[in-house]
Amino acid sequence: MRRLGTIILLILSGLAFAEEQAPKLDTGDTAWLLVSSALVMLMTLPGLALFYGGMAKKKDVLNTIAMSFVAYCLASVIWFLYGYSLAFGKDIGGVIGSPEKLFLQGVGMDSLSGTIPEFLFAMFQLTFAAITVALASGSYIERMKFSSWVLFVILWVSLVYVPIAHWVWGGGFLAKDGALDFAGGTVVHINAGIAGLVGALILGKRREAVLVPNNLPLVVLGTGLLWFGWFGFNAGSALGSNSLAAVAMFNTNIATAVGALGWMFAEWFHRGKPTVLGLASGVIAGLVAVTPAAGFVNPVGALIIGVIAGVVCYFMVSSVKQKIGYDDALDVFGIHGVAGILGAILTGVFADPSINEAGKGLLYGNPAQLIVQIKSVIVTVVYSGILTAVILFVAKVLTGLKINGEEEVSGLDKSQHGESAYNIS
């Protein structure tokens, strides 16, 4: 009888322990991720739309804004139909997720992802997919057919973004290698930057390949909205209302501030005057560079990453781009691509295990992490570059891809939408 009693007690204790260990919804985490999802959505609409729209020519403002607008709408539908399942479903060979959650099948009111509802996790990740493809549009503005852009978004999110998101965040082969990407250095910014560069090369130059913003206050407004929304982007990637979210938020702010100052002083010394557009560009460079590192480095590491990004991206845009001669209209590669690469690699240097035990970089005795980071960058660059080129050639065959010279002169607002941004008599 004693043995029987002991066995029963052990069973009951085991059941109680299992119950304690079972995932439970945390209302604080849920509230923070609800806010973060809304903040990341704000980054695309209206943040990025206004940022890009203000930098476009007066005759192309609405078309530029529409590219971000429709990207968000299309990515939302794709994510619901199959994007979420293939990115975050059960891993298949390290390459793609299983189709078991197509149309969000099996995701119910009681489904959890950690301590938050799975519906909310899916929504949060949806906003990342949307802004990634929208970022690439900055390289294509003022010369791409709107119909071609719609087709590109559908194919690119499906064939480029979804697989890379699975490789890094969904349990794929880069995740298994130990690649560190807290909020999207590889998945978002290198991915979008390379897509922008490849697209700029394939589309060719505009007739007027200059950057003369039609509305700088609009650019500054968009920059402020992006900075604000980025707190949800980076701190939200902690997936909880906790200390990791707090340090990610602080790191994001300090890296962005010094990124803006780094660009400003580099431009001031190089060209004699600090421009407002330069300050805005430095903000984006700092935000991008700290994105993969935000939840892995300490504030000193974040500061170093931010200032390096601001200075390097300035010279990439002001000097290197002109020497190479490609027409990346809004410098998507020069800022997002270059700062994304810097941030991803430097995460492998500055990752501090006292901030996040999941990451230990070169400076803390783990040189292997730097190798893993470089590998993840190379894989992203190669895959995104090749698939983007294939998708653009398909779009060229099916839709023609590029507007004609007459349409470019009259402007895409008129030729693609039959509208004008500024109806002033």
Structural description of this entry:
This protein is an all-alpha fold. The protein has one domain: Orthogonal Bundle (Ammonium transporter fold). 70% of the residues lie in helices and 2% in strands. The chain contains 15 helices and four strands. A two-stranded antiparallel sheet has the order 1-2. Helix 2 runs antiparallel to helix 3, helix 9 runs antiparallel to helix 10 and helix 11 packs antiparallel against helix 12. The termini are far apart.
Which secondary structure elements does this structure contain, and how are they paired or packed?
Elements: H1 2-21, H2 27-55, H3 61-88, E1 91-92, E2 96-97, E3 112-113, E4 116-117, H4 118-136, H5 146-169, H6 173-177, H7 185-203, H8 216-235, H9 243-271, H10 276-290, H11 299-324, H12 332-350, H13 367-399, H14 405-410, H15 412-417
Antiparallel strand pairs: 1-2, 3-4
Helix pairs in contact: 2-3, 2-4, 2-8, 3-4, 3-5, 4-5, 4-7, 5-7, 5-13, 7-12, 7-13, 8-9, 8-10, 9-10, 9-11, 10-11, 10-12, 11-12, 12-13
